[in-house]
Amino acid sequence: MAAHPCHRRGDGNPRPSLRGCLQRRGASKACVGWLLAALLLSPLAQAETVARVASPDGRIEVQLDLNGEGRLAYRVLRDGKPVINDSRLGFIFRNGRQLLRNLRLDGQANTRADTTWEQPWGERRYVRDHHNELRAHFVEKDGDHRRFDVVFRVFDDGVGFRYEVPRQPALEQAQIVQELTEFAIARPATAWWIPALEWNRAEYLYRRTSLAEVGLAQTPLTLRTDDGLHLSIHEAALVDYAGMNLARGGDGQLRVMLTPGSPAPVVRATPFATPWRTITISERAGGLVESNLTLNLNEPNKLGEVSWFKPSKYVGVWWSLHLNQQSWATGQEHGATTENTRRMIDFAAANGFRGVLVEGWNLGWDGDWFANGWNFDFRKPTPDYDLTGLAAYAAARGVHLIGHHETACAVSHYERQMDSAFTLFRQLGVEVVKTGYVCDAGQIERQDTPGGPILREWHEGQWMSNHHLRVVRDAARHHVAIDAHEPIKDTGLRRTYPNWVAREGARGMEYNAWGHPPNPPEHEVTLVFTRLLAGPMDYTPGIVSLTGRDGQEIQSTLARQLALYVGIYSPIQMVADLPEHYAEHPQAFQFIKDVAVDWDESRVLAGEVGEYVAIARKQRGAPLWFVGAMNDRHPRTLALALEFLDPGKRYRAEIYRDGEGADWRGPARFRFVREEKTVARGDVLSLWLAAGGGAAIRLVPLDG
Amino acid sequence: MAAHPCHRRGDGNPRPSLRGCLQRRGASKACVGWLLAALLLSPLAQAETVARVASPDGRIEVQLDLNGEGRLAYRVLRDGKPVINDSRLGFIFRNGRQLLRNLRLDGQANTRADTTWEQPWGERRYVRDHHNELRAHFVEKDGDHRRFDVVFRVFDDGVGFRYEVPRQPALEQAQIVQELTEFAIARPATAWWIPALEWNRAEYLYRRTSLAEVGLAQTPLTLRTDDGLHLSIHEAALVDYAGMNLARGGDGQLRVMLTPGSPAPVVRATPFATPWRTITISERAGGLVESNLTLNLNEPNKLGEVSWFKPSKYVGVWWSLHLNQQSWATGQEHGATTENTRRMIDFAAANGFRGVLVEGWNLGWDGDWFANGWNFDFRKPTPDYDLTGLAAYAAARGVHLIGHHETACAVSHYERQMDSAFTLFRQLGVEVVKTGYVCDAGQIERQDTPGGPILREWHEGQWMSNHHLRVVRDAARHHVAIDAHEPIKDTGLRRTYPNWVAREGARGMEYNAWGHPPNPPEHEVTLVFTRLLAGPMDYTPGIVSLTGRDGQEIQSTLARQLALYVGIYSPIQMVADLPEHYAEHPQAFQFIKDVAVDWDESRVLAGEVGEYVAIARKQRGAPLWFVGAMNDRHPRTLALALEFLDPGKRYRAEIYRDGEGADWRGPARFRFVREEKTVARGDVLSLWLAAGGGAAIRLVPLDG
Predict the structure, then answer these.
(1) Distance between A506 CA and the closest CA of chain B, angstroms
(2) Where is the Glycosyl-hydrolase 97 catalytic domain (chains A, B) (predicted)?
(3) How far is B10 from chain A (nearest CA, A)?
């Protein structure tokens, strides 16, 4: 007798499992009654664990279940307690039946890995990849008997999983409308998140709400459960696929919502693999920052030797533009002039900064560039910008121009000029190019054939995931590194393409020029535990004038600006303020000149999401350490254990910190002290941070 | 000097307005500081009201603003207080620039309307359409100078608005990726909602959460603000467009999320109008139920005279199937046999019920019909079902077979047979057809050419909005009425096509057969204020046995089952239980035989969302009134003022109510009393309702 499908599903609620009921409602009377009913009446609710994999230390376990209707779910436990409850896996296709039910396990393979690999640059030099992997093969029992694998890699600090769909006649091309992946967070939690698919892309202040109040969020999404466990959900290796967002579903679970595209968010021929869906897990907030999970799930370096990219600092014609003192467009206030740039080159050379970024250097900025990026020419400078002469002027001083390719989202137009533009830049000694995609969400312009129709895409859609890799690969051929602004999210592809060195992808320093409000004190302390988990950010720190347009105060102390160089990791760091402002703060400027940009090691000494953080990093190839600490609007004293210093050595600690009475509001934000102390491993450094404050420390070995 | 677009937007937050800040944070210090900064620095934040329209009674006002960057927003006030804060309007297209900014008002027209129209059947006979309309013409100041109108109609109990886009060379076809419409609810609120785009479509228990905890919701979405105002957000006249869902955005606002489709959720040639986006507003919860806003925004009757549709009751081969006592498929337990159906016809005839629904009557139910709706034949009965003979048997007894067209989502297959299937049915005296679309969300099967590729659609996507109207129009040609299950949401199109008489579209009675859990006591009391605001529901009430499969208790008292006939409106009401069960409850059955199904008038005497409700309805064309009251799990006594009775008349109140100690749990759910009282206008009837209980009353004039 053919049963009505509703019979097979048991109940109409999205989580037809005993476990789900108990987890939602505990052993309440309703639940017990339901339990009995379910046991008696609903064999489908009984799921069977068909595969498992645990972390190397055994504390994290992933279990895969198939229930009575052959539906697959995974769950994650830590020390035996649920972290992720039963969560769905599967796909809705446009061009085929959904891949969800009537599955059976057709084999599994467990492997272990423990390797160490080296980053050509980064927050640390050596990265350990220590995980256990489960590869589970599934096949549909009915229909076309389609096959797919789910691969789980479990690390001591988290889990990554992805789907791998082999070539098969019944699924030659997958048009993925919805990926049914869920993350059913087991406990109530606090969430730090920014909204997805809204006009200002990633440039929002993070919201701190209960998990229950998350609407539609971007990743990384960071959580702290009610029992203090930190989680961050993200993805690794976003290649030829739509970016993943997270929507809260009717049962409180987080569901994947792919960035839109046409004819479907994702179109892939088999065989294909999805990006890795990642859940980083740590008791300490700092553990999220220290994790290498995302990088470890990316493919190894495809570019080979990349010593042509030098982690470095740069200055440029940039802040003046955001202050509205100079313009991108030509005219009396044009910023990108030969003379202005020479001054910048001189300033860079005098202070040992390698790069000079100049925005507005090329044709296309006059008129309404925002509305029409098709006017940009990426190879032709404006008449008042002697590109070739300036490149030579810079070269003679050991300085390199940093290129600027603002597309204003006329992306196909950019792609047509890109290669010759990189060729030109390379000839001129340009090693790094900052790209830009300034336009509202959903306004990327794609034109497959010149003169053909223009279609709109999303910054994090599948088409743009491919565009960015076309850019990065072409740049690599020219030995050019890419710093993408208004980008796609970072998912660790810098491992595979180590010329993809940095990106924006959050509300950055420019908002301190003209934003209403400017970035509040907790913003950067939140970024460290959210945006920065994805990868380096070109935050462009160091605005020592602490003032934006028309006298608007930047909500930061002076010492905080220095801390950003350590707190917010990037292999290229801007010395962003006007030269004349640095002249007013010589002590602070000294730290900026001294701070390293490439590291052997990084560790979080202390921190809580959105409250405060102190990070220590060891300069690559030198025995120096740097510490950066940043604070929200509550003054506090941190006790930092200097256990990272080499034993038996003494160090001079050059401490740049908030002065007495410092505060992010008013003139008090300039209260600033530079002092020195002698310290050694085992010492505990007491560091007072003002409201909206920070501290930056350079530790130099005294002996030898 | 060309400004950076970020300058023009002022801040990076999605709500760059003074009003928004004040409304969110009150006159806090942060807000005042922001206010000053905004006044000094950000002309764009200053918006100008360019158009207004108020309700006839003047209490509700809609204001349209254009801000400094030409971006349009609407807001809704009631008695001068914000109900909806500044909310965005606009579109993201795939095939053109977004329609959002740089708009100017190019004219406006205000009109008033006060008409009354008659429903051929319904919860009331005469409907007053009293509103003020504002039609505002907008044109882009730049680019292609595209034009569109926004039309607002304001009633004393709510607001409806839609976009109208005229034919124009720069926008010949709109591929709408995202409709940017928002509803920025001004106050904290409680929300009753079901999740959108999840596998079980609309068949979820309603969640009651704070508005802040809404994730992605279907409409109607019902709210009660913290100052007691009731709102419901929905749409009217969903024609050739994707169904609207509501997602909570980063600023707490509700944003429209259209049901997916390809190449975009909506593809329309200009000129086109969107559905009306509706906000029903009432101090009383009952006011939402009594509102005619949705119907009034639909086009008038296109079918002309529809007396061939008779509001009526029906029985059928249905509950036995859900009890698993009989089967849809052929075999020993086949429900749809000639003999079973004859018995049903006899039962119907003996009790004055017009219709007999038989499910499983046709070829295609054997095997896994759920997986393959393409096997259904809508014209061929099974060998053990004498369709023609049964039609004649029924006709001789004044009974009509109700047709059943379960598609199992093989929709294109159904469309190919539909017309001949209706022809056949009409010849056999079938007046009503129940259709079905049983499959998971996103699994509708569309095949544009026979043998061609099969694409998947969504139940509430644009393609299905058109499919349903093709069915309804074709059925109308055959004088057949449609009762659609697993349908698209009701948006009032029964006004335009009064043969579209009812639908399911929520978790119905069938879940009481096999659902885990069955429908809890508050479910139906919530449906009245949510699902039922959209239109009639074929809930299939009257399971007087109060028992599902394998003895599972239905969470309802006996009197509650009778109340459903009045509480949950439908012009076709099933007498759903097995005949032998009615024989066990003759008193209750009498009410079911007596209750009307078509009304002159309906009013809510008392009610709170999800708690309790009492509705009074006057039988159409007769001086009888019926009252239905339903209760959540908290026993209560209602004091119902019988002010609706005709003055100067006495009525016999035939009261069917919960007996002493009645309760939805256990044998106590059968405690039941029938009593009579004489009442008159002005009396207050005290009505005790058990936990999970109800009452049904028939009021018959005593004099003349």
Answers:
(1) 10
(2) 318-506
(3) 6
* Min Cα–Cα distance to chain A from B252, Å: 8
Tell me if chain B has a CB within 8 Å of the CB of A323: no
Q: Which CATH class, in words, describes the domain spanning B48-297?
A: mainly beta
What confidence category does residue B704 fall into, taking pLDDT thresholds of 50, 70 and 90?
low
Bridge partners (DSSP) of residue A551 are none
Average pLDDT over residues B338-357: 98
Low pLDDT (below 70) residues in chain A? 1-45, 704
pLDDT classification of B358: cutoffs 50, 70, 90: very high
A378/B contact by beta carbon, under 8 A? no
Closest CA to A527 of A291, A223, A206, A197: A206
Please tell me the predicted confidence (pLDDT) of residue A26. Answer: 35
What is the mean predicted confidence (pLDDT) over B507-534? Answer: 97
Asked whether the beta carbons of residue A14 and residue B371 sit closer than 8 angstroms, the reply is no
pTM, rounded to two decimals: 0.93
Give me the pLDDT at residue A368, please: 82
| Cβ neighbours of residue B307 closer than 8 Å, sequence gap 6 or more | B120
Choose the closest CB to B7 out of A98, A142, A514: A514
Helix (H, G, I), strand (E, B) or coil at A85: strand
C-beta separation of B275 from B491 below 8 A: yes
Q: Which two tokens stand for residue B144?
A: 């292609």
ipTM: 0.92
Model confidence over A496-508: pLDDT tens digits? Answer: 999 999 999 999 9
Judge whether A505 and A490 are in contact, CB under 8 Å. yes
The torsion angles phi and psi of A503, rounded to 5 degrees, stand at -160, 170
| Residue A298: partners with Cβ closer than 8 Å, 6 or more residues away | A236, A237, A491, A492, A493, A494, A495, A496
Helix (H) or strand (E) holding B112: strand B103-118
pLDDT at A238: 98
Active-site annotation holds for A580: no
Q: Which amino acid is located at B513 in the chain?
A: A
Classify each residue of A116-149 as buried b or exposed e, where b means 16 or more C-beta atoms within 10 Å of its C-beta. Answer: eeebbbbbbbebebbbbbbbbbbbbeeeeebbbb
Find out whether A529 and A289 touch, Cβ atoms under 8 Å: yes
Put simply, the answer to whether B248 touches A216 (Cβ < 8 Å) is yes
DSSP alpha helix (H) spans, A485-634: 511-514, 521-527, 531-534, 558-567, 579-583, 586-594
Instruction: Supply the pLDDT for residue B5.
Output: 53
Which residues are CB-neighbours of B480 under 8 A, at least 6 positions away? Answer: B403, B422, B425, B426, B430, B431, B432, B433, B499
- Number of residues that make up chain B: 704
Nearest CA in chain B to A447: B95
Picking from B1, B18, B190, B330 by the largest number of A CB atoms within 10 A of its own CB, the best residue to mutate is B1
For residue B255, the chain A residue with the least C-alpha distance is: A198
What is Dmax (Cα atoms) for chain B? 86
Residues of A in contact with B248 (CB under 8 A): 215-216
- Which of the residues of B are catalytic? 510
- In the beta sheet, which residues pair with residue B640? B685
At A413, list the tokens: 């137009």
Q: What is the pLDDT of residues B108-133, one digit of tens each?
A: 999 999 999 999 999 999 999 999 99
Q: Which of A406, A445, A486, A510 is catalytic?
A: A510
Please choose, from the candidates A569, A699, A566, the residue with its C-alpha nearest in 3D space to the C-alpha of residue A645: A699
Q: Which of residues 225-254 of A touch B (CB under 8 A)?
A: 247-251
The answer, for A342 touching chain B at a CB cutoff of 8 Å, is no
Q: Give Cα A289 to chain centroid, integer Å.
A: 11
Q: Could you tell me if A671 and A662 are in contact, meaning their C-beta atoms sit under 8 angstroms apart?
A: yes
Instruction: Inform me whether the pLDDT recorded for B646 exceeds 50.
Output: yes
Q: Where are the domains of chain A?
A: 48-297
Q: Mark yes or no for CB contact A331/B1 under 8 Å.
A: yes
